[in-house]
Design a protein that fits this description.
binds FE2/S2 (inorganic) cluster; 248 residues; binds iron/sulfur cluster; 10 helices; 5-stranded mixed beta sheet; elongated; alpha+beta
Length: 248
């Protein structure tokens, strides 16, 4: 049987180091299979989070050879196996143990975003009428599996640690899903500009490159949101109207 070496980060919030594990590999294996095999054969205390092994739960996010990836969707046949494959936890969130990080900050961010607020129903039976084209546009953003790989790769969180001032690409996708929804009536532009920190995004597109659901995060979510913020706060006509608008 062919063998490969996996260099896996072991440790917790207080520190750790990479350990090398050699294991047998066979056709069709993904990185998560190798990690499970290493757990079974050599390191029963190795911590790894996963649920579906089908790229749909978003739990098995890690960095493989330095790239944010889902372990269950990364085939060994796509990796160079003549040298060790490094597997380490996401860097933008606190470490818990081995490959597991504490992603709870993301759920707290999500709770703070103003929820969906539909217009009154279009018909007496409480239903709405929507064009199929409008529904289709929302579907792209609804594919998000909350793996947080885009958050992990974004330099605003990963390197500058601005978690208190920036909600990150995943939540710009979430806010954009409301803005393009044909029924939503909520205004979230003030929050986007201030608390959500959209101005920190300098459109590097790193988030788009790592998204396993191929959501065009930067072009379809972030840039249209930035344009709305600019229209709202920097359009000279709107600024004048705001000055003369009676305060409520
Ligand atoms: S495009 Fe913006 S949100 Fe995406 S990784 Fe770059 S700075 Fe972060
Ligand atoms: S937008 Fe893509 S990368 Fe970001 S959390 Fe959703 S699925 Fe993951
Ligand atoms: S285990 Fe569910 S996405 Fe990998």
């Amino acid at each position: 049987m062919a063998m490969a070496t996996f260099r896996i980060w072991r440790g917790d919030a207080s520190g750790g180091k990479f350990e090398d594990y050699e294991t047998g590999i066979s056709e069709g294996m993904v990185v998560l299979d190798a990690v499970h095999q290493i757990q079974a054969e050599k390191a029963p205390d190795l911590a790894v989070r996963w649920n579906c092994k089908a790229g749909k739960c978003g739990s098995c996010s890690a960095e493989i050879n330095g790239n944010p990836k889902l372990m269950c969707m990364t085939r060994l046949s796509d990796l160079p196996l003549d040298k060790p494959v490094t597997v380490e936890p996401m860097q933008a969130f606190p470490h818990i143990k081995d490959l597991v990080t504490d992603v709870s900050w993301n759920f707290r961010v999500k709770k703070k975003i103003k929820p969906f607020k539909p217009r009154p129903p279009d018909a007496e039976d409480g239903t709405w009428r929507m064009a199929q084209g409008d529904i289709d546009r929302v579907q792209e953003f609804r594919k998000c599996i909350e793996c947080f790989l885009c958050q992990d790769v974004c330099h605003v969180l990963r390197e500058h640690h601005l978690h208190d001032e920036f909600i990150g690409p995943r939540f710009f996708v979430y806010v954009a899903s409301f803005y393009i929804h044909p029924l939503d009536t909520e205004n979230r532009l003030k929050e986007l500009k201030r608390a959500d920190g959209i101005g920190y995004c300098n459109i590097t597109k790193c988030c788009t490159k790592v998204c396993p659901e191929n959501i065009t995060i930067t072009d379809n979510a972030i840039i249209p949101l930035k344009e709305r913020v600019v229209d709202e706060f920097y359009d000279p006509v709107k600024r004048l109207l705001r000055i003369f608008r009676p305060r409520t």
